Amino acid sequence: MAIAKAERLMNLALCLLGTRRPLSKRELRGSIEAYLEAGNDDSFNRMFERDKDDLRELGLVIETVENLDGETGYLARRDSNRLPPVQLDAEEAAALGLAARVWQQARLAGAASGALQKLRAAGMPEADNPYEHSAIEPRIPVHEAAFEPLMLACRDRRPVVFEYRKATAVRPEARHVEPWTLECWRGHWYLAGWDRDRGAERVFRLSRITGKVRSRAAAFTAPVPDVVTVRETVESWAGETATRSARIRLRAGAGYPLRSRATSTRELGDGWDELEIPYGHGLDAWLVEFGPDVVVLEPADLRADVVERLRAVAKG
After folding, report:
1. d(Cα 301, Cα 44) in Å, to the nearest integer?
2. What pTM did the predictor assign?
């Protein structure tokens, strides 16, 4: 069935692209074998309208023209459906090659590789990639099963439902979310969206989503903000925005991501260092990831949050 539909769409596209004048439904039905076998007029009309909508969704510009006799005709002008030549310099080609390699661990790997092949066939220069023989491999890890359904839901603007376990909770709870976008921050993926139950925007870490992500056929109830605002929200909830400083003890030779953010470092001896790092929303969740290698000295509220998270983890 899929092959038959693809062949029918291809034949319709060729007819619309190959004509110099608008073709009526009657003429198109007589030119395409699948339409001749459609049976009655109602079946043909439904099939034709679906095919026309599918071609438009794929990007084909189909014009509807009414002739002198009042009959509606269709055509796809070549100049309206021809892309301009791809012109990229060496630096732009290198950037595209690097971007394609970033997604090698994700489902987008095949699409990225195919897009590069098409661009090279169209004349994109083979640029020298500075990362080609580097020990640093530019990749964005995608291990969470929730990534793909959430990516599609963000693209199609479809609400989703999933079970989410907060860092301080023992059991997950259902969340009804209108997804906006996915952001990768410090090796972890986050979903930003509108939480229907709480009536506010929220950010969810994908690694804390349990079970399947189920989409819902319904419209969004809240406006979607611009991309910049969403990214700022993700960074803020993930701990990027710092308003205070925290003082921690860190085991020597451990916690290099923390050391890279430290504003000051002092050796304490006995295998421990004292660090002062920016303190913002989400720092407690990040510190918990380092387990026994980190001890929070101050402020007291940060220390309490870390202890609470560790207790929740211990309870399972």
Report:
1. 69
2. 0.48
Torsion of CA 209, 207, 157, 182, to 10 degrees: 160
In the DSSP assignment, the letter for residue 223 is: P
- Could you give phi then psi for residue 131, rounded to 5 degrees? -100, 5
Q: Would you say the C-alpha torsion 224, 229, 231, 233 has a positive or negative sign?
A: negative
Return all residues near 301 (Cβ < 8 A) that are at least 6 apart: none
DSSP secondary structure string for all residues of 16-52:
HHH-SS-EEHHHHHHH-HHHHTT-SHHHHHHHHHHHH
Helix (H) or strand (E) holding 173: strand 173-185
Q: At what angle do helices 90-102 and 109-121 cross, to 10 degrees?
A: 160
Digits of tens for pLDDT over the chain (316 positions)? 456 788 888 999 999 998 888 899 989 988 888 888 887 888 899 999 999 988 988 888 899 988 777 789 998 988 888 767 767 777 777 777 766 666 655 555 566 666 666 666 666 666 555 445 444 455 556 677 888 899 889 988 999 999 998 766 678 899 999 999 888 776 678 899 999 999 998 889 898 899 899 998 888 999 988 776 666 766 666 555 667 889 999 999 888 888 888 899 999 989 999 999 988 777 887 888 888 899 999 999 889 988 888 887 777 6
CB 192 within 8 A of CB 235: no
In this structure, is the dihedral angle defined by the CA atoms of residues 125, 130, 133 and 135, taken in order, positive or negative?
A: negative
Q: Residue 182 class from Cβ within 10 Å (0-12 exposed, 13-18 middle, 19+ buried)? A: buried
* Burial environment of residue 205 by CB neighbours within 10 A (0 to 12, 13 to 18, 19 or more): buried
